[in-house]
Amino acid sequence: MSYTFFDFLQLIGSLGVFIYGMKIFSDGLQKIAGSKLRAILKGMTKNRAYGVMTGFGTTTITQSSTTTTVMVVSFVNAGLLTFVESTGVIMGANIGTTVTAWMVSIFGFKTQITPIAIALIGIFFPFLFASNIKLKNIAEAMIGFGILFIGLEFIKDSVPDIAENPEMFAFLDQFTDFGVMSTLIFVMVGAILTLLTQSSSAATAITLVMLFQGWISFPIAAAMILGENIGTTVTANIAAIIGNVHAKRAARFHFFFNVIGVIWMLIIMVPFLRGIDSVMMYFTSSDISVFSDAEEARVNATLALSLFHTSFNVLNVLLLFAFVPYLIRLVEKVQPAHLTGDEKFKLQYISGGLMSSAKLSIEQAQKEIDLFGKIIEKMHYSFSGLFFKKQKKQRKFLKKLGEREELTDVLEIEIGEYLTRISENSNLSNNDVRQVRGMHQILSDLERIGDLYFQMSKTVERTLDDDIALPDEAVDELKTMLDAVYDSLSFMRENLGKLNGHQSEVDLNKAIEMERKIDELRETLRNSHYERLENNSYSVKTGIIFIDLLNRLEKIGDHILNVNEACAGKRLKATRLETESLLGNQPPLTPPEAPQ
Predict the structure, then answer these.
(1) Does 242 score more than 80 pLDDT?
(2) Which helix (H) or strand (E) holds 297?
(3) 522 Cβ partners below 8 Å, 6+ apart?
(4) CA distance 418 to 39
(5) DSSP characters over 247-285
(6) pLDDT tens digit string along 344-398?
(7) Could you give the angle at the alpha carbon of 182 between the alpha carbons of 178 and 186, nearest 5°?
(8) With 70 as the cut, is the pLDDT of residue 473 above it?
(9) Which of 35, 132, 250, 570 is at 20 to 30 A from 238, Cα to Cα?
């Protein structure tokens, strides 16, 4: 055998070049699509048919069904898609992933693509340094496209020649004489190959090369393709481990859908492959069967494998489309709901789109903002728990704070986009416009409060990692500050419930008084901090941590007042002037309306 370990390293390196090219190509396409990709996923899921088209389109753009399904799982986890909406997208992703196989089989084997690929890199390489972002992204995608096919050519050259290394063929050939069991073995090989490469497209390309080089026969290659369809579901299932029950269900659906498809295809495998062979012979006007070992049949065999890949996935969608509700029930039984507190805070009211009137849509957004406020309240509980619980509990609270901070980012964007769509309605009254603008302000402040709690949690985490302990006196002071912030936060939560036509009931004088109390408490505790520094009660580093937490809590108080102000529909400055006028027994100033 003439194949050495160095040759094997070249094969691994060639595979690395191919996968790297695919990643650059995929990243470039996704950057070109930008936020549209996310809008496509969200906007075209009205029913399963739209979902299938969405999944196909998104996977064609990303060049990876794994990317699409992982994205879908994360969207379901964030509440941007429902589990039922995700099913269509997942089915479409299975079809979209076959585009790569066609691209590789047409350009990689039937034409000399490498010179074109190198020329393509030469043309677009200078644009990588362009100031125009869109042009830069296009250049990145085209260079990735070129590297992808250079990597494919490297793989073809690095795969050992069967004629010079008959031992390798003999090794594979010994597993092909077990009938149905041989097919099952290579289904497993395909699944493992996808797991190792973490890309069904890369695994498909390797299978195509093995078929083209004569390593494996057409039926064995088809079995590996089926295995790759199962292997591609694993990444999404791994991504769903840390997700909520809906994300787990989306990942499980992907697995069951693909496995059921593989099972029915294995039953009719022989006649189906003969049908593919007949179609290829008809359209290529060739008398050579793709089952043949002849060298002339290999190029057609790669096209036949791509046809099998696409036909299988399209038929699987068509056959199982009507049975999706039953599959959903099966998944729900396998993955039952164990609702935790956070499960309730996932876009409950606006995920279905705009209501029939702007007024109703505004009400739905107001309900969602109220839930947003509830998440912020839970973040306060989690942060406060860091000062009361043991270290094991503290780590749990830190994780919760991180998860909820990510959720606040998503909610700000999604509710904000919904409000923007409401604003596009030309029939909005002046009062509706003021309400929508006020809600935009509230979203910004709530998200900022979430950021502050998360930043403080990272500060506390550093104290745990560095084994820094605040003195009991400092901890007690922080608890006092936390109590004052919580009182203000609770009052804010009450006012969020008054957004819908009850703005006049918001007691801004009380809100201002609470914010002043927080400011005054911050000043008092800051003086205590300086006294501790002067008395060497704690180190400068520990003091910096204390004052950082104190200042951020005071900032939270400011944002809470902003939210209360928006709930009342009044400006902060005007409200303060009104309060001061009342305290001075002077006629109150008339607060101006919020800007339109």
Answers:
(1) no
(2) helix 296-320
(3) 481, 550, 551, 553, 554
(4) 12
(5) HHHHHHHHHHHHHHHHHHHHHTHHHHHHHHHHHHHHHHT
(6) 445 666 655 565 567 777 887 888 888 889 999 999 998 988 876 666 678 888 8
(7) 165
(8) yes
(9) 35
For residue 328, give both structure tokens.
Answer: 């959903």
* 8 Å CB contact between 40 and 173: no
Q: 498, 393, 380: which is closest to 442 by C-alpha?
A: 498
With beta carbons less than 8 A apart as the criterion, state whether 237 and 263 touch: no
Q: Is the pLDDT of residue 575 over 50?
A: no
Q: How many residues does the chain have?
A: 596
Q: How far is CA 181 from CA 97, 178, 223, 418, in A?
A: 27, 5, 11, 54
**427, 361 Cβ separation under 8 angstroms:** no
Q: What are phi and psi of 424, to 5 degrees?
A: -70, -10
Looking up tokens 């520990």 gives 542
CATH class of 343-583: mainly alpha
Q: Which residues are within 8 A (CB) of 301 and not within 5 positions of it... i.e. 6 or more apart?
A: 211, 212, 218, 221, 290
d(CA 91, CA 47): 12
- CA gap 371, 377 in Å, rounded: 10
C-beta separation of 8 from 144 below 8 A: no
Q: Which residue has the tokens 């609270």?
A: 397
SS3 (DSSP) at 106: helix
CB atoms within 10 A of CB 169: 16
What angle, 0 to 180 degrees and rounded to 10, lies between the N-to-C axes of helices 98-109 and 296-320? 170
Q: Of 229, 309, 298, which Cα lies nearest the Cα of 273?
A: 309
Quick one: which of 351, 501, 349 has its CA closest to 429?
501
- The span from the first CA to the last CA of the chain, in angstroms, equals 80
In this structure, how many other beta carbons lie within 10 angstroms of the beta carbon of residue 379?
26
- Confirm if 248 and 303 have CB atoms less than 8 A apart: no
pLDDT tens for residues 4-22? Answer: 778 778 878 887 887 788 7
Structure tokens at 370: 């109220």
Residues of the chain with CATH 1.20.58.220: 343-583
pLDDT in tens, 515-547: 999 999 999 999 999 998 888 888 888 889 999
Q: Cα–Cα distance between 169 and 174 in angstroms, integer? A: 9
- Token reading at 528: 């205590």
Place of tokens 């269509």: 88
Would you give the distance in Å from CA 152 to the centre of its chain? Answer: 29
Tell me the two tokens of residue 297.
């049949």
C-alpha closest to that of 553 among 487, 484, 493: 484
Helices 540-568 and 572-583, packing angle to 10 deg: 90
Q: Residue type at 421?
A: R
pTM more than 0.85: no
Q: How far apart are CA 46 and CA 214, in angstroms?
A: 46
Report how far residue 511's alpha carbon sits from residue 513's, in angstroms, rounded to the nearest whole number. Answer: 5
Cα separations (Å) of 220 from 181, 239, 537, 574?
11, 30, 74, 77
CB-side exposure of 562: number of CA atoms within 13 Å? 18
Place of tokens 């030309």: 426
